[in-house]
């Protein structure tokens, strides 16, 4: 009996000694995870107006149809990637914007950065555009420019979502909330908008 008690005591001591370093490592693991998560609070979350949210249809063969605009994110045209939209701020713990960070940082965090786009507004050709561009680039030339306008078709007003070149505002695609309307007017050019000569529509 004494041998059994001695053996059980030894097992208990071994178990206890093995569990201590595991417990000691837990706070560090949690802190590391929190640090990595908080590092990507890159700016204030942007909220699309309710009139922007939902399904948008296009007949452009290069654009997923429908394209979704969510409350604070959207599915990008062509690639259909889901990305969060933010008003860019400093990278947490620094006084630098993401595009001011060294290339080594951008490279090591490229997968996480790809989940975000930054929002800016710009007036081009008399229209107010929301421009969504890669968060790690200062230039918005690789971004998407969108504007919504009330347009009249067949005597009725409809909201049309225009996609334009972010540098010159020339329309390259347009969307409506109705698939039937899109099928009928996909190549229609509105007089108050300027269209790209190389128009993929």
Number of strands: 10
Q: Based on helices, strands and strand pairing, what is the structural class? A: alpha+beta
Largest sheet: 8 strands, mixed
Distance between the termini: 87 Å
What average pLDDT do the residues reach? 81
Estimated share of beta-strand residues: 25-35%
Please bin the fraction of helical residues: 25-40%
Shape: elongated
- SSE string: HEEEEEHHEEEEEH
Low-confidence stretches: 1-38
The gyration radius over C-alpha positions equals 26 Å
Number of helices: 4
What do these coordinates show?
The protein has helices spanning 2-38, 103-108, 110-113, 179-185; strands at residues 43-45, 54-56, 67-69, 73-75, 82-88, 116-124, 127-134, 144-153, 156-164, 171-176. It has four helices and ten strands; from the N terminus they run αβββββααβββββα. Residues 1-38 have low confidence and may be disordered. The protein is 27% helix and 30% strand. The longest helix has 37 residues, at 2-38. The chain is elongated and about 55 Å long.
């Amino acid at each position: 009996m004494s041998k059994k008690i001695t053996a059980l005591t030894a097992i208990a001591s071994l178990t206890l000694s093995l569990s201590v370093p595991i417990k000691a490592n837990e706070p560090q693991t949690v802190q590391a995870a929190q640090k990595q998560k908080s590092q990507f609070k890159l700016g204030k979350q942007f909220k699309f107006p309710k009139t922007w949210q939902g399904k948008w249809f296009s007949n452009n063969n290069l654009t997923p149809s429908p394209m979704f605009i969510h409350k604070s994110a959207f599915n990008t045209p062509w690639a259909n990637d889901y990305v969060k939209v933010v008003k860019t701020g400093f990278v947490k713990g620094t006084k630098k914007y993401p595009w001011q960070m060294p290339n080594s940082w951008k490279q090591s965090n490229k997968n996480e950065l790809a989940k975000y786009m930054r929002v800016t507004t710009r007036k081009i050709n008399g229209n107010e555009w929301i421009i969504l561009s890669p968060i790690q680039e200062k230039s918005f030339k690789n971004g998407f420019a969108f504007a919504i306008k009330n347009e009249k078709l067949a005597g009725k007003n409809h909201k049309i979502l225009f996609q334009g070149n972010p540098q010159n505002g020339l329309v390259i695609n347009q969307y409506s909330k109705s698939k039937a309307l899109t099928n009928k007017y996909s190549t229609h050019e509105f007089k108050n908008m300027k269209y790209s000569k190389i128009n993929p529509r």
